[in-house]
Amino acid sequence: MPYIDQSARTRLADGAEPANAGELNYAITLLVDAYLARCALADGRIRYAHLNEAIGVLECAKLELYRRVTAPYEDEKMEESGDVYTVRSSHPPREPGRSRPDSSRSDVSRTCR
Questions:
Q1: Model-wide pTM > 0.85
Q2: For residue 37, what pLDDT is reported?
């Protein structure tokens, strides 16, 4: 929950940018709350559609952040440090060499069907 102290709330209300994750959460919460309040005022009450819209926007913003910023960062780190996964969605496993389950064992192949 975005519970930050009053001095941080005042600083943000005066236009300061969030200094940490808690403050960022608080700032986002204020935006969503203001949107929902306007929707409730316009329609006479809060509706599921309003809540669904707000959650959908947050989810899309999260996914876009992941797609545009996090995934490329993770790809860079994978190249620098080496991959962990031996399988790909469209490729067979890489060469074994580390302690991985033997996929030729009958008990493993039975569980992967």
A1: no
A2: 98
Spatial distance between the Cα atoms of 48 and 76, rounded to a whole number of angstroms: 41
Name the phi and psi angles at 17, rounded to 5: -85, 150
Q: Which bin fits 85, alpha (ψ -120 to 50), beta or left (φ > 0)?
A: beta
Classify residue 28 as exposed, middle or buried by CB count within 10 Å of its CB (0-12, 13-18, 19+): middle
